[in-house]
Amino acid sequence: MMPGWILLQRLLPRISAWLLLAFLFLPILVVIPVSLTDREYLSLPDQSLSLQHFASLLNWRAGWLPSMITSIGIAIASSLLATALAAAFAIGAWVHAGRWPTAMRLILLSPLIVPPIIYAVGMVRLWSRFNLLDTWIGVTLVHMILSMPLAVLAIGASLANLDPRLVQAARSLGARPPTVFAKVILPNILPGVAAGAVLAFITSWDEITVTLFITSRRIVTLPRKIWTSIADSVDPALAAIAAVMLLVTIVGLLIRMLVWDGRTPNRS
Question: Which residues of 85-119 are buried (b: 16+ CB within 10 A; e: fewer)?
Answer without folding.
Answer: bbbebbbebbeeeeeebeeebeebeebeeeeeeeb
